[in-house]
């Protein structure tokens, strides 16, 4: 890398501007721009502004103009060729990348154009898809300019500020891009799990119904179905419900382990752990005895067990005042038993971490138990309070929850109880854990509100008409 930088610095300045602009524009202007190192080029431009080879202002302007022109050409190509984009060289992109870019644009619209600038494959494909979808150019241009300006400026300024640490920043940024993909995939998985749970509010029964279609199980139930029925009648509906809820909680525990494992891998490979020492030193330099004592009192009071108890009380009160609840897993965890997923999350976080001790005596590892439970508890409280409330109440609830999560996480960092990487992973785990149930409940409410019951995906069309699902 040092030899490459020396060679580049020896080139005429105009050539450097021209080549860098062509690379940045070509990343989106041509379909094989997926192979062009746009981010690395902008980091290099930023480094060259640091050592005086290039000037920062003209470099920023040139790169922004080049990126806008490249996106404009891609938009025109999409408008002109439409579906034919996927043929020819486009088939080498792969159907999965096209499908993910399609989903981003369909879900976010103009915001998808903005977000695509920060995702490597998407910034090449989304402008073409926007043109093919007949998005008005004015709308595309505004969102695209916002995305280009932030992405180019952030990358160039990062390279400029890195200075002699260009190699390190470039390596970490490349790793961070992969981690971003991993987290996006995880978020998509969380949403899909929530949607499936909303359509199948009794997941254990749905899975057993699907398993019943497997030939060996079907033969077993056909042969001993009467025996199973008699056993179910013997234990009674109460024990049947308890067994079903216990099995559902085991499924939630498995889902929590999967999410926690994903976050642990993401944090481990993001390079964030490399900054833990610097961040801990920054907080330690600003720690005073009086402030530390006051912060420790707050952290001791606002801890996971207290918040879980608060969630239980709020959920019980709201369930008693607002609506009845049914005897299935989703109804229980969405109303009177809203604290149950938090208990499961606490067990998951305890199992998956910590694996060491921080300088202040706290947890070091991929996850922090307290921060995960605190984040999930604050988000669950905001979700419970904001459901069916007027928007000022909902905004106030979610603002308070965000302030609480950031405040407690920052307080534990200030005290040296946890690391930055562990805090980030734990907060993400708590938020994603709440997202599962928010998506599930919204899916169920939408289905009931539209007059269509949630569809049990495990049932086949030949099984007869669908049984309506009562509102919770």
From TrEMBL:
Enzyme class, top EC level, equals hydrolase
Matching InterPro entries: DedA-like (IPR032818), VTT_dom (IPR032816)
Q: Which residues form the VTT domain?
A: 36-160
Say yes or no: keyword Acyltransferase present.
no
Q: Annotated region Disordered: where?
A: 448-472
**UniProt GO MF annotations:** undecaprenyl-diphosphatase activity
- A Pfam family for this UniProt protein? VTT_dom
Give the transmembrane region(s): 14-36, 56-77, 140-161, 173-197, 242-267, 296-320, 329-349, 369-386, 393-415, 421-442
Keywords (alphabetical) are: Cell membrane, Hydrolase, Membrane, Transmembrane, Transmembrane helix
Q: Where is the composition biased (Basic and acidic residues)?
A: 457-472
Q: What is its EC number?
A: 3.6.1.27
Per the record, membrane topology reads:
Multi-pass membrane protein
**Into which family does the record put it?**
Belongs to the DedA family.
> By what name is this protein known?
Undecaprenyl-diphosphatase
Q: Which organism does this sequence originate in?
A: Micromonospora ureilytica
